[in-house]
Amino acid sequence: MKLSNVEQESTSDGMLRGKRALVTGGTRGIGAGIVKRFVEEGATVVTSARNSVSDLPAGVRLITADLSTLDGVTRLAKEALAELGGIDILVNNAGGGIVPFLAGPVSIPDEEWVKTLQLNYLAAVRLDRAILPTMIEQGHGVIIEVSSNSARRPIPPLLHYTAAKAATVNYAKGLATAVASHGIRVNSVLPGLTRTSSSDEVASAIAEAAGVDFESGLAQLIEGEGIPIGGAGTPADVADLVAFLASDRASRIVGASYVIDGGALAEV
Predict the structure, then answer these.
(1) Sequential pLDDT tens for the chain (268 residues)
(2) Is residue 68 within 8 Å of residue 6, measured between CB atoms?
(3) CATH class given for the domain over 12-192+234-260
């Protein structure tokens, strides 16, 4: 997939210049947006994906790895550390792989629960565990867990996914408390509906179940989100927030979770 799904222009002033970053799942969707923005801000970036691609931004190194497995995570950590000589910023963005079970949560088979938890939760836990010793040794680091606003609004057909994302937010808060004294900041980002190939797959499933065309299915998906500002977000929207949190400008932000969904999730 080309990076053209990152549509809006962003201004940059080099706020990540000199930083070494690992962004998982960085060849499509939100991950591609984050990689693009990090490069614009001057970071040296390594990213990961299950399969090789040829259209990454100049200078970005791709490591192919299946992060739903312990072996895949271990190999990614080893190769990324060797490539970068250390990691200042880790963005755990890899996730997805979800199938909406429109018959409800009782129809979600065990293998889907396991697969979804492995990729959307345990991949981040395992990669943090592999990278944190070097961050502790160097005395600084930033970890950003990309979750979802559905972590706070469980969706029955996607309960396996939303539960994994909720676990990620809880885990990030606890990890932040544990490692802050080592100069390491951990925060989480909770995007709402963002127009990517994954959201299009969900829209297609809705359209098929309703017997309508794709555009109608997408309209139903957007309407169901109840987004006050209207429409779906873009990967660039999320990337702007992640880049700020990764920068030294956010040096006092620790253990926070930021919802970016156009107002869909009512917070109190």
Answers:
(1) 233 333 445 567 899 999 999 999 999 999 999 999 999 999 999 999 999 998 899 999 999 999 999 999 999 999 999 999 999 999 999 998 777 787 888 989 999 999 999 999 999 999 999 999 999 999 999 999 999 999 999 889 889 999 999 999 999 999 999 999 999 999 999 999 888 877 777 788 888 888 999 898 888 888 888 888 888 889 999 999 999 999 999 999 999 999 999 999 865 3
(2) no
(3) alpha beta
The helix, strand and coil proportions of the chain, stated in percent and rounded to the nearest 5, come to: 50, 15, 35
Residue 83 corresponds to which amino acid?
A: E
161 is catalytic: yes
DSSP 38: H
**Contact residues for 179 (Cβ-Cβ < 8 A; gap 6+):** 132, 135, 136, 186
What does the domain layout of the chain look like in residue ranges? Answer: 12-192+234-260, 193-232
**Whether pTM exceeds 0.70:** yes
- Selecting among 121, 161, 171, 258, the annotated active-site residue is 161
3-state secondary structure of 215: helix
Closest to 202 (Cα-Cα) out of 167, 160, 157, 162: 157
